[in-house]
Design brief:
- This protein is mostly helical.
- Helix content is 85%, strand content 0%.
Length: 173
């Protein structure tokens, strides 16, 4: 019996290593292998087995071994169906988690990129505003220097503009 158990375990290990085989095919193969192994065991041990029955001797013992092989194969097949189903569910869950992590990573990178672009745009706008302010101050300074050079005061120039505005309003009335 030890040899029979070793043969059956070896056969199941070999079949389990085949990852492409679906559980239904495995159940069928395991059933056939179980029946074959039990049949060979009966055939090899015909002389030592206790036979009973009429004209066809040993049919009951052979039938018991054949049914035992079928039951073993079916039970192993169902166990593998359950096992493969759980493995498949675990793989699907792992794939979903991986896809979710990749999606979150892409979203995070997109948000970071948008934030960087926004900061760069704000920096650019701040630089442009600073340049305009500097240009305006430089233009005002240049204008003040021109009026100082030509003998007019910058304050008088502003006063002259105010007077012109009042004169224009008086003429319109």
């Amino acid at each position: 019996m030890v040899i029979f158990g070793a043969i059956l375990c070896l056969g199941q290990l070999l079949v389990l290593r085949q990852t492409e085989i679906t559980p239904r095919i495995f159940a069928l193969i395991n059933t056939v292998v179980g029946i074959f192994v039990f049949s060979v065991l009966v055939w090899l041990n015909q002389k030592s087995l206790e036979w009973s029955g009429g004209p066809i001797q040993g049919w009951k013992t052979g039938l018991i071994f054949l049914v035992g092989g079928a039951v073993t194969g079916a039970a192993t097949g169902k166990a593998l169906d359950f096992y493969c189903g759980r493995v498949e569910q675990r793989l699907i869950r792992l794939e979903r988690e991986r896809v979710e992590q990749e999606t979150q990573e892409r979203e995070r990178l997109l948000k970071e990129r948008i934030e960087k672009e926004k900061l760069a745009q704000e920096r650019l706008e701040a630089e442009m505003a600073e340049r305009k302010r500097i240009q305006r101050e430089a233009a005002q300074e240049e204008e003040r220097l021109w009026y100082e050079k030509h003998g007019q005061d910058y304050a008088d120039y502003e006063y002259d503009e105010d007077e012109k505005e009042y004169e224009d309003e008086d003429q319109e009335e």
